[in-house]
UniProtKB/TrEMBL annotation:
It is an enzyme of class 3 (hydrolase). SUPFAM superfamilies: Composite domain of metallo-dependent hydrolases (SSF51338), Metallo-dependent hydrolases (SSF51556). The gene is nfdA. GO terms for molecular function: hydrolase activity, acting on carbon-nitrogen (but not peptide) bonds. This is Exoenzymes regulatory protein aepA. The lineage of its organism: Bacteria, Bacillati, Actinomycetota, Actinomycetes, Kitasatosporales.
Length: 550
């Protein structure tokens, strides 16, 4: 682009009128648009280069796109920003290939940070290591020199810790999920995580949050849904994040607080925290990698069916209270038994409050990985939004992946059925669950379009919509996430190659690949192809990221 690369402007920049021209504007209002006008933080016009001449003299700024692609900014519909920032600035074990390599990194991290009250790390995955054994407590004690250490597994539903951290949590050995020399799960894990994160100072928290938001903005993300709660992060962390996001330029943050609501007082408390809903990570179960997702049949590699945190009655009580209070409800549910509990509970709530009221509330379910035909149909009937993470399949799917290890190949092939969800009428909102998988929206779109299981694939266009407009619809906004007049001016500029309308194979409807359909193109996301590079991100008409000159 040939315009200035000045730093982001303060709030008044959003009141200026800007003409963008000479690029490709991804808009259903005009599939061949090359120009766009932004005024007072909203899209005012999209159209052709010739028509743009009429606006050129009446705007405050002209941005010459030099062929860049303009798209709606992405929404990441499930993140944990403080944990994401801490993982980026702390000990990252996601690239380790052996337990010995992980211990070496722990040792080096401990030596490099002699003054930290608690050492924090994230991302280990023993399923990818020879022997598939996590580090033992004695090994961690030796590597840290006896200091407190918390290392969350990649799915954040279990952790290994040092003895010194256990000593900071009285009674932890009596809590559910504690085993003498195995990863902690359940209540024991929540207790040690609270102790570990409690050692992070407010200044460290704020810097981690800023780092996570900066990273998101640099990837073309204009809004995120923070999924917090008493078992994830403290109230100070949550309210501090919302305050920081309101005061400083960056992606929009919609906050969810995952705590059960039983009546008007509970609903008022959720609102007082600044939360959009009592949703997000309100746990019905855990995760497959940690053997804590709740299943109807036992794990293929363990003699149990996981962990249930809420039953259908508890789900129903929460949904009734939220619906009557006009509050969005939602749940974390991954295993098939957990999803059964969700749909049975929400259906029972609908029988009490009325189906129309439940549907209009747009309650959510996070992850929704092990859907059956029955639960899929029920989610559609109940009007629930599925907030899902395509990168999970990219990381753990396939015949030799973690899903197949945990469930067997046959059950694993049923996971994350995005095509069936769309066909069934379930609204999809895509996210990363960062730091479980990185904030990487184009990679998420690619993962959905090229799912390990071909029948679960969706078109690039459908996946892109789920990662842009889908996130806005999930918070009750149907007027955003798309570049049409009147929509919020949340957009990103991209350097990319030729645009096309792409369906990954003949199992995906291909009518829209015909140029005569007037469908706007998107970058080629074939595996191995270069992904678009974000040049600028704009939120509400205000620039929040500009790529540095190369």
């Amino acid at each position: 682009m040939s315009d200035s690369t000045a730093p982001p402007r303060p709030g008044p920049a959003a009141t200026r009128t800007v003409l963008l021209r000479g690029g490709e504007v991804h808009s259903p209002a005009d599939p061949f648009a090359t120009a766009m006008v932004v005024e007072r933080g909203q899209v005012a016009w999209v159209g052709s280069e010739g028509a743009a001449d009429a606006f050129a003299d009446g705007v405050d700024e002209v941005v010459h796109l030099d062929g860049a692609l303009v798209t709606p900014a992405f929404t990441d519909a499930h993140v944990h920003l403080t944990s994401t920032g801490l993982a980026r600035t702390g000990l990252d074990l996601s690239g380790t290939r052996t337990v010995e390599q992980a211990l070496d990194l722990v040792r080096a991290h401990a030596e490099a940070r002699p003054h930290d009250r608690v050492l924090l790390g994230h991302g280990w995955d023993a399923a990818r290591w020879p022997g598939q054994f996590p580090p033992g407590r004695a090994q961690l004690d030796e590597a840290t020199g006896g200091r407190p250490l918390y290392l969350s597994r990649i799915d954040v539903h279990s952790a290994v810790v040092s003895s010194a951290l256990l000593d900071l949590v009285p009674g932890v050995t009596e809590r559910a999920g504690y085993r003498p020399d195995a990863p902690l799960t359940g209540d024991a894990h929540h207790a040690v995580r609270a102790a570990a994160l409690g050692a992070v100072t407010p200044a460290q928290r704020a810097e981690a949050q800023r780092a996570a938001l900066r990273e998101a903005a640099s990837l073309g993300v204009g809004s995120v849904h923070e999924c917090a709660g008493p078992e994830i992060s403290g109230e100070d962390d949550f309210t501090g994040l919302l305050r920081l996001a309101a005061e400083e330029p960056g992606p929009r943050v919609t906050g969810y607080w995952g705590e059960p609501v039983t009546g008007p007082l509970g609903a008022a408390r959720i609102r007082d925290l600044g939360a959009h809903g009592a949703a997000g990570d309100l746990f019905v179960d855990g995760a497959l990698g940690s053997h804590t997702a709740c299943l109807h049949a036992p794990y293929a590699d363990a003699g149990h069916t996981g962990t249930a945190h809420l039953d259908a009655a508890a789900v129903a009580a929460h949904v009734v209270a939220c619906t009557e209070a006009g509050l969005q409800a939602g749940f974390h549910a991954i295993g098939d038994a957990a999803l059964t509990a969700v749909v049975e509970g929400v259906r029972a709530a609908a029988e009490k409050t009325g189906l129309a009221r439940v549907r209009s509330a747009r309650h959510r379910v996070e992850h929704a990985e092990m859907l059956t035909g029955e639960t899929l149909a029920a989610l559609a009937e109940l009007g629930m939004t599925a907030s899902v993470q395509p990168a999970f399949d990219a990381l753990w799917g396939g015949e030799d992946g973690m899903y197949a290890q945990r469930l067997g190949a046959s059950r694993a092939r049923t996971l994350n059925p995005f095509a069936a969800m769309l066909r069934g009428g379930i609204p999809l909102a895509f996210g990363s669950d960062s730091p479980v998988t990185p904030v990487a929206p184009w990679e998420g779109v690619r993962a959905a379009a090229f799912h390990h299981t071909p029948e679960h694939r969706v078109s690039v266009r459908a996946a892109f919509t789920a990662h842009t407009r889908g996130g806005w619809r999930a918070i009750g906004r149907d007027d955003a996430g798309v570049l049409v007049p009147g929509a919020p001016a949340d957009y990103a500029l991209w350097r990319t190659e030729e645009l096309l309308v792409q369906a990954p194979d003949d199992r995906v409807a291909r009518w829209s690949t015909d140029p005569r359909s007037g469908t706007p193109g998107l970058p080629d996301l074939t595996p191995g192809a270069d992904l678009p590079v974000c040049l600028r991100t704009v939120v509400g008409g205000e620039t929040v990221y500009v790529r540095p000159p190369e």
